[in-house]
Design brief:
binds iron/sulfur cluster, four-stranded antiparallel sheet, alpha/beta
Length: 367
């Protein structure tokens, strides 16, 4: 992952598959405007895997739906930004071209397969139809590809299973079908939105392993949307942490999990139950996410941040490299040199120690 550094209208270099620049997606509702995604920028190189992590309502799913252009406009509005995919800005494509991109070059795996699969068509028909539409092949070729994909995702007896309906399969099996459907057309990018949240823990681990193995086999890039840091730790190379519509920290998974710099990331990691000894109270991030109709003017995490100091209330911190390392980014005044802070504010006496791992990585990984 690299930061978006090029000017407006300039495509990213060819090795960058997806580059989102200063994306703003707002929802206009009766009570006002909700800035669900508010100035988000990130990029994914070809074949790279990236996790977008944050709690419910932080804007991560809206980011993915904006990339796919699957939002209802209105009430949604893509107020500004660029989404460069394979050399084209998706926000400028006519809907007919976008339909070709969707399901062919970019595919999605959703959280609950039962709501994504059609209950009145067989599994084979549904996968086969997607292949027919996007590959312009015969019905037989589509069906054969469906059987091949079911075999690839580890479904036993794929010829027989292809003739079954979604309700005849377990939750884990249906999610395998969704993965088969997502990969059937050899996409360049797979967007997986909470792909294991609706599954029980043992099946979650199998599905994550499958996604990882198939991603490596096919070479597709992966954008994994999740609230679960354990899923990110196990599955992807890069991570971006979102809070209240903004990315607050980015970097390699090792950096973000072992050496978090943003107090919100640190709080998320300290809240993982396996980090707490038996009988001890669980750590929590105090307070609640801000009211989307009245976002704080300065840092959006300020009302909950144990390290908040002078500039945080009135000035929004920029997302920038904390130590000249362009592969990392953090939006926090603690990591901006004193001379560049508003009013040259002095940081509190005991800021977080970024060089110390907050939690051992094995305690983040799934038990
Ligand atoms: Fe906390 Fe201030 Fe950093 Fe925001 S900018 S996370 S309030 S220290």
């Amino acid at each position: 992952m690299s930061d978006a550094v090029l000017g407006p209208g300039v495509p990213p270099p060819p090795d960058v598959l997806l580059e989102v620049r200063d994306l703003r997606t707002y929802f206009h509702v009766m009570d006002g405007t909700v800035p669900a995604v508010d100035g988000v920028s990130f990029s994914i190189k070809r074949g790279e895997t990236m996790g977008l992590v944050g709690e419910s309502g932080c804007g991560k799913s809206v980011t993915s739906l904006t990339i796919m252009r699957l939002l209802d406009i209105p009430p949604a509005e893509i107020a500004s930004g660029e989404i460069w995919f394979d050399g084209r800005d998706l926000l400028r494509l006519p809907e007919s071209e976008m339909r070709e991109v969707r399901g062919n070059d970019i595919t999605m795996i959703f959280q609950e397969p039962m709501t994504s699969l059609n209950p009145v068509f067989t599994i084979g028909d549904q996968i086969g139809e997607a292949v027919q539409q996007h590959r312009h092949v015969s019905k037989k070729a589509g069906w054969d590809r469906a059987v091949e994909m079911l075999r690839l995702v580890g479904i036993p007896g794929p010829e027989r299973r292809a003739k079954q309906y979604p309700h005849e399969m377990s939750g884990g099996m249906r999610q395998r079908v969704m993965i088969a459907m997502a990969l059937a057309c050899d996409p360049k990018l797979v967007v997986a939105d909470e792909p294991t949240t609706a599954l029980d823990v043992t099946i979650q681990a199998q599905i994550l392993e499958l996604i990882k193995a198939l991603q490596q086999e096919t070479g597709a890039a992966l954008l994994l949307i999740t609230h679960d840091l354990a899923v990110v730790a196990e599955t992807v190379q890069q991570a971006a942490v979102m809070y209240a519509g903004k990315i607050v920290e980015t970097g390699s998974v090792e950096d973000v999990i072992l050496r978090p710099k943003h107090p919100y990331t640190e709080g998320l990691l300290r809240s993982i139950p396996s980090h707490v000894a038996r009988g001890q109270r669980l750590n929590v991030i105090k307070g609640t996410v801000p009211n989307p109709f009245r976002m704080p003017v300065g840092c959006r995490f300020e009302p909950r941040c144990p390290y908040a100091f002078e500039p945080c209330h009135d000035h929004e911190p920029p997302l920038q490299a904390p130590s000249g390392d362009q592969s990392q980014g953090v939006a926090c005044w603690l990591h901006v040199p004193e001379a560049q802070r508003p009013g040259r504010a002095v940081a509190p006496a005991s800021p977080p120690a970024p060089s110390q791992p907050v939690v051992p990585v094995e305690s983040v990984s799934r038990q």
